[in-house]
Predict the structure.
Amino acid sequence: GAGVSQSPSNKVTEKGKDVELRCDPISGHTALYWYRQSLGQGLEFLIYFQGNSAPDKSGLPSDRFSAERTGGSVSTLTIQRTQQEDSAVYLCASSPRVGVGSDTEAFFGQGTRLTVV
Amino acid sequence: DAKTTQPPSMDCAEGRAANLPCNHSTISGNEYVYWYRQIHSQGPQYIIHGLKNNETNEMASLIITEDRKSSTLILPHATLRDTAVYYCIVRSAYSGGSNYKLTFGKGTLLTVNP
């Protein structure tokens, strides 16, 4: 079946513009996660959704970042007034359920490479 | 507050077993050990996880020491496509412990050589 799909795969934007990154999780997965990976850096947790609600938004770097999930499926990560330091690969993942143990492994998409110029 | 320690890099000959160590000396009784890998320009890929027993699946084996302070991921017959960064991650079983979050360290860059 289809994996986690992210779009666009690449995005170049001018500093100060807003961008929207989309994630289509695996069908039936209740949990959805956003991470980002800056050049040469490790993966940084941003936010996760359980259904349509986001219990933990603490990883969002600033109030310019927001995310929503609708219908327990598609999620959008929005970055307002982009800055050069926002340049990174933004990765989305989904899992059948949250936690540890069976059916909790996260499946990642290929990411969206965002470049702010 | 890194919970795991891994060597920054390792080499392995194609066709041989790759044994990737991970130290998690402060692991607590309710914490699982997860392994992911990230091939260049791709998203991370789940490999295997375990609590205290050794685990095996189609990708790899996970050997956890009896005291649970370290573990080894074994790729039995490494191929060139196994070249990747391998991450060892410790996760709590308690929901209050942010167990939804994968905390990635720097991992081990495994290079499989022909």
About this structure: Chain A touches chain B through 25 residues (CB under 8 Å). The first strand of chain A starts at residue 5 and ends at 7. Residues 10 and 80 of chain A are 17 Å apart (CA to CA). Chain A is about 0% helix and 50% strand.
